[in-house]
């Protein structure tokens, strides 16, 4: 895949590829910049086009061993060489929401010691589930202030690859469920909010917190004795001079 593992790889919007397989409602490509649904981040959508004016919409991308690009229409009509283009507006919204999730999870761990146990991202709003916490109303405002200050500081975000042992040594206690990863995994893709947070993740992220904009809390729900769900969205980012 083109978008792994580099920071800039997350910004690849278009690419050329060769079709390796056509089956049912999908095609398999030799390379791709499409993000397959997973880890709380929705699928990319977009188009495949080819010389002569032909095109097919990519309606869903899934990774089940291979990466399947589900297209509208018959996959047999897709020629060997295609040009892929992802819906960038949608993808960039997911990148902002996903990076914001990392930052909120890190802030809430720092301030309240709560662990992130799940998240779901959308283009216009997202949510995170926390364990071992009972928020008070003012806690959300305090977390937002910390979040906004880090965004205003324009902290860089990097995508790295690291040995598992190094990740285990450098990840803050309670930040990631590293014990859930199979023992066989020895190298990890890691997202670093430089100087603040480190977390293994396969999703797509922005390269600087200044792309996020300020946090807009949309409410919280109690999900049990010590479980909370936080809903949020983002203000548009400030124009960087
Ligand atoms: Zn992530």
Radius of gyration: 19 Å
Structural class: alpha+beta
Main sheet makeup: 6 strands, antiparallel, barrel
- The chain-level mean pLDDT equals 94
Amount of beta strand = 35-45%
In N-to-C order, the SSE pattern is: EEEEEEHEEHEHEEEE
Bound molecules: zinc ion
Number of H- or I-type helical stretches:
3
Biggest sheet strand order reads 1-2-5-4-3-6
How is this fold's topology laid out?
Elements: E1 14-23, E2 26-29, E3 46-50, E4 54-64, E5 66-71, E6 81-86, H1 88-112, E7 115-121, E8 126-131, H2 137-152, E9 157-163, H3 164-170, E10 187-193, E11 197-200, E12 215-224, E13 227-234
Antiparallel strand pairs: 1-2, 1-6, 2-5, 3-4, 3-6, 4-5, 7-8, 8-13, 9-10, 10-11, 12-13
Helix pairs in contact: 1-2
Bound molecules: zinc ion.
Zinc ion (ZN) is lined by residues 98, 102, 191, 201, 203, 205.
Short description:
With 241 residues, this protein is α+β, with helices and mostly antiparallel strands. It is 20% helix and 38% strand. The structure holds zinc ion.
Question: What would you say this structure looks like, in words?
Answer:
The protein is an alpha+beta fold and 241 residues long. It has three helices and 13 strands. Helix 1 crosses helix 2. The protein is globular. The mean pLDDT is 94. The chain binds zinc ion.
């Amino acid at each position: 895949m083109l978008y792994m593992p580099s920071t800039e790889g997350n910004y690849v919007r278009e690419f050329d590829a060769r079709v390796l397989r056509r089956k049912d409602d999908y095609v398999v490509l030799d390379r791709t910049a499409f993000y397959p649904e997973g880890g709380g981040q929705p699928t990319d959508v977009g188009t495949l086009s080819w010389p002569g004016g032909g095109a097919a919409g990519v309606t869903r991308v899934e990774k089940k061993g291979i990466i399947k690009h589900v297209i509208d229409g018959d996959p047999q009509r897709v020629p060997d060489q295609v040009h892929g283009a992802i819906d960038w507006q949608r993808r960039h919204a997911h990148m902002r929401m996903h990076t914001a999730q990392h930052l909120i999870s890190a802030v809430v761990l720092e301030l309240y010691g709560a662990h992130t146990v799940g998240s779901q991202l959308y283009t216009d709003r997202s949510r995170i589930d926390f364990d071992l916490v009972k928020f008070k109303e003012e806690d959300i405002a305090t977390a937002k202030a910390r979040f906004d200050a880090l965004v205003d500081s324009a902290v860089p975000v990097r995508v790295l690859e690291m040995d598992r042992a190094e990740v285990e040594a450098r990840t803050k206690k309670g930040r990631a469920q590293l014990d859930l990863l199979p023992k066989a995994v020895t190298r990890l893709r890691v997202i670093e909010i430089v100087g603040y947070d480190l977390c293994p993740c396969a999703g797509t992220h922005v390269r600087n917190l200044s792309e996020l904009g300020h946090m807009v809390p949309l409410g919280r729900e109690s999900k049990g004795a010590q479980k909370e769900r936080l809903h949020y969205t983002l203000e548009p980012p400030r124009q960087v001079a």
